[in-house]
Amino acid sequence: MVRAGRGSGGGGDGRTRVKAARRPEVRLPGLAEFEGGGLEPDGDYDCLEFREVDLGGQDGSGARFMDCALKGCVLDGAGLGHARFLDSVLSAPRGVGTDLSEATLRDVELRDARLGGVQLHGAALERVLVRGGKIDYLNLRGARLRDVVFENCVLVEPDFGGATLERVAFPGCVLKGADLTGATLTDVDLREAAALDIARGVDRLAGAVIGTGQLLDLAPVLAGALGIRVED
């Protein structure tokens, strides 16, 4: 069932209201400048600022970043599978093919990213804000997203196949060619998306809330998914 409505709390009009996502509240302490030569597998990074560091091709798999700021870093081909980003801010990262498979992001802000082919399949995202920027071919297959907000960003062909989304919102976000195949949605708010284009898995929109105009835009795709032939 696709729900359409307004508001995020209870009400007396008989409609079920979508629960709003909880945004992260990241307050970084004083940070020391990162002076290491590169990342290390299973490394521990606490209260550090990575400023315009080229992390391309480095292996930081299983590393833990706590209370860190990564500003303008290059992440081309960086290996960060199973890494943990906690209470951290990533500002203006750029790169292609960053591996964050099965990573954990909790209480994280990702700002003005310019990324392509990011591998976040099997990852766990909780209280994450993705604000601004553009991410091409974001792979979130099988990921778990809870309290995640994509705000004023562009997502080109994001893959949510088999993912679980709970309290996820897309205000001002442009979604192009999204894949929801096999996804499970609960309290997913798409009403304020600047553009909503679902290439596959439109039948998985149960648990989402959309606006009336969006419903009309999606009508041809919905009809096709339901096997309805529309003729004048």
From TrEMBL:
Residues 1-13 have a biased composition (Gly residues). Residues 1-22 are annotated as: Disordered. InterPro entries: 5peptide_repeat, Pentapeptide-BTB/POZ_domain. PANTHER family: BTB_POZ DOMAIN-CONTAINING PROTEIN KCTD9 (PTHR14136). This is Pentapeptide repeat-containing protein. Gene3D superfamilies: E3 ubiquitin-protein ligase SopA (2.160.20.80). It comes from Streptomyces fuscus.
